[in-house]
Amino acid sequence: MTTREEAAEQLRVIRTMMERATIFRALSGETALIGGAAALAAAWLSEGRQGWAWAGWWLFGAAMVLLFNAWQIFRASSSHAKPFWNTGLKLAIRGALPSIVAGGFLGLLFVRAKNEPAAACLWSLHYGLALLAIREFAPRSMVWLGWAFVIFGVTGLAGVAQVVESIAGLAPIKNGSRLMAIAFGGFHLIYGAVIVTTKGREESEA
Q1: Alpha-carbon distance 184 to 63, whole Å?
Q2: Predicted structure pTM score
């Protein structure tokens, strides 16, 4: 491959990554707002429940958000005349799936033991790791969201395991629904609001 061909290939890769980041950014704002609202609803409905009755509301909420995100991707693919099952989607799933599967399994083990706070921390931690796993073609804002979930999950686990007494004494540490509401509700609503408002400003300036 000549120097000119190498430069052309590098430009093609950079352009593809920028296009993927733009699509991710456009999709993630609306999905984050829906995800945040669904998390707050699941937190309210699961409050006071334990075990599978608690996890059922969160799994139902996650399924609804995934369906909405799939519809968003289908809509974006159709408008750009591109296939739904494209290379970018395959790469994203391939990168995020290990953390999602591992975290989901570990969380369900603690659900079975009726330790909902530990399950909430593990789900937050592994969800953050999944976002970081696709950072090569995701916008920088999503990387910051991933780190927020990772830090929250690790800090929460330190409190649940009573490694750090000052954290263990906080009221939300003893309540899985409230931990999930803070992470999956609060973080997503803040992220979605920032993305949607920034997107609107960028479009008006264009």
Answers
A1: 14
A2: 0.84
